[in-house]
Amino acid sequence: IKQEALDLIAEAKDVAAMNDIRVKYLGKKGPIQEVMGKMRDMSVEEKKETGAAVNEVKQELAAVIESRMAELEAAEVEARLAAEKIDISLPAQARVMGGKHPLTAIVDESVAFFRSMGYEVGVGPEIETDYYNFEALNLPKNHPARDMQDTFYIDMHRLLRTHTSGVQSRTFEARSMQDLPIQILAPGKVYRRDDDDATHSHQFMQLEGIMIGRDISLAHLKATLQEFVHYMFGPEREIRLRPSYFPFTEPSMEVDVTCAKCGGSGCSICKQTGWIEILGAGMCHPNILTIAGFDPEIVSGFAFGIGVERIAMLKYGVEDIRNFYVNDMRFVTQFKDWG
Length: 339
Ligand code: FA5
Known about the structure:
9 strands, rod-shaped
């Protein structure tokens, strides 16, 4: 029995095999236990002799099994460690980093520019009241100019703001003569019931700029916008002010920038005019200042509303505004390193 067990032990390759051998030879149903069971019927003399022999075999086998088991266990741990070893020479897996959305990049750049000119950043709610979006901006109910911006109404008094100009009314109302000059830039989303096409979206972004103080003139407005355009598009780009109409500014104007593609000579992008419209602006209407409690004889100011998508389309050469909103990774990842 002993030799048979020792041969098997020598052959065993792993801890599991050794366990089987231990159970087979030293377990309750093993041959050693069987011999010990038979000892009951033996004479005292035989019992003594057999007992001593069986015990010796049992102890020897137990010792051999134990030491072989320890060896095999150590070998298995070693093998596991070798297999798990981290290879620090392997190249690291590159982490996929996100990037700024092009519209966020334009807003951030604009905020940096206007901050450098002394503007603070303001915000207004996207769900606006009829009062701040229209009435306080010189657009009483039934005013025909309300149709200029087709509105998503929530109920009789609340709507999704159609422009960021509500921030004008809120700002003027919250400030007084002691706060002059007031310079605010308010970026944000706006909503209109426009049909989506290559240049119109039912949800888009505007940057509202407001400056009021003493002796603020159209020259300040023009210089501010010219500087902004140079900062955004480069020093060779010119602007022109075209007369327009907004109920909250007088005079009102639309501002165009020279077309980058043709440099002003006319092409398909600028519909042969050489110019592209980017924003609406004007001098604050005396009624607006009066509604807000400022004396228009002493205080004057200007405001402008820039279309963020328009700027991004011109700057990055994007031909369809809807690209900004469909989250196609092939489109957005192009701007990853630009912001
Ligand atoms: C306004 O919204 C005025 N509140 C701007 C203003 C502010 C005038 C302060 C005077 C003083 P307008 O509707 O023209 O104006 O919109 C301003 C800009 O938003 C446009 O020049 C254009 O760039 C952009 N815009 C207008 N409608 C859309 C649209 N559906 N999709 C994308 N951009 C648009």
